[in-house]
Structures are given as structure tokens and as C-alpha cells.
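Quick one: C-alpha cells for this chain, please?
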Amino acid sequence: MAPPPAAVAADSDSPSQEQGSVPVWMFGYGSIIWNPDVPHVDTVDGYISPFRRVFYQASTQHRGSDDLPGRVATLIQPADIGATAEPHDPSWRVYGRAYRLPDERAAALLEDMKERESVGYHHTTATVYAPDGTVVVEHAACNVADVKNDLWRGRTAEERDDAAVAAVIARAHGPSGPNAEYVIKLDEALTKMGFGDEHVRSLMGHLERLRAKDGGRAGKGMVRRRGR
């Protein structure tokens, strides 16, 4: 199948967008992959770079509470941790799914996205590449947590430790459901798409060990062992 045409990100002041002549895409790397509740007319799978998916953003609105914030996915770039990366470095690729928004609703849907992820996130665009490195979407909108926001949990080695992150995820629960469900369904979706994620797999391993250790209570029964 031929790749979709390159697209530019939404700009509410763009005349061409208002005329519906420019496709508008949104890139999902977290729950939107397995719960695509945004209207869309097309999808394409691929990666953005240089980024890493990390569970360093605390969640009090969706997968946790004020008393026990959960953890949800966000993105970091090399500069965030004082690193450098070569273009398309495999360790700095985040695989996910881009959604083409309906032309006549694109601007409103992007505003809804910004509103939904308003706590701690800023909004940017990224190029989406096919696994072979070819460009499939030139600019796709996505949300990224600001490393200086109050809910950022990637400042210390303890906050970044996968075992500690999984221990939080196993206990947290919010209006959208158990925090563990978020990780499990993301892992399942990425596996089905043919894309592995070392960080997500590590969290899954810790969740499974926690569940085995406490007799199945960790993650409120959401963890299921399955073939690799």
C-alpha cells in the first residue's frame, strides 16, 4: 500500500485548512492507540524520533487520584536527560499510530485534545516515519509533558526506576480505570502492531511479578500472563 500523503499540522489561521485541502494528523503513543476515541478517517503506523516513551507523568485526572497519582506515558527527547542521539537512532524511536482527522472537524478536535491533556502537557508536532525510515506524515500533532510541570516524576533515579514505577501503577486507580490496565492494553496493542517497547515490557514484567507475589491483587487483577 502506498504511504499516505505528507500532512501539515493544524493551524486554525490556515486558509487551506479551512478549505479542507490539507490533511491534519494526530500521533498517538499512549492510550489513544488502544482506545482511539477521536473521530478519524485514516490511520498509519510508524515512529517518531528522537523521542522515548516513558511513564514519568503522574495522573490525578484519569488513572490516579490526588491521594495516589498514577503514571501515564509521555515523551522525552535526548536534551531532557543531557544526551545526544543520531538521526533515527533505534533507541530513540517511539512507535505508535497516526490518525487523520476529518477535515471539517480537525481544528475543533485538536482543541479538544489540548483541553483533555491540559494538565502538564504542551502541544507540538513531529514527523512520522514508516519502519523503513520513509516519511509517511510530515507533521502530526502530539502532546508531550513538560519536564518542569508539577506532575513530572522523572527528576530522580528513584522516580525513574521501573520497579518503583510499576509499584505505583499496580496500586493506582482513577476515573478512567485501573492504572495497570493502561500499561497492559498499551503493551498488547504495540505487540499486535509488531512494535516492541523496552520500557513498557519492563513495566509489564514488574507488574506480573507483583501480581504473583501478592496473590493476584496487584493491578486489581488486570495482569494476564501470556506468551511472548
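Strands lie at 24-28, 42-48, 52-59, 70-76, 94-101, 121-129, 135-145, 173-174, 177-178.
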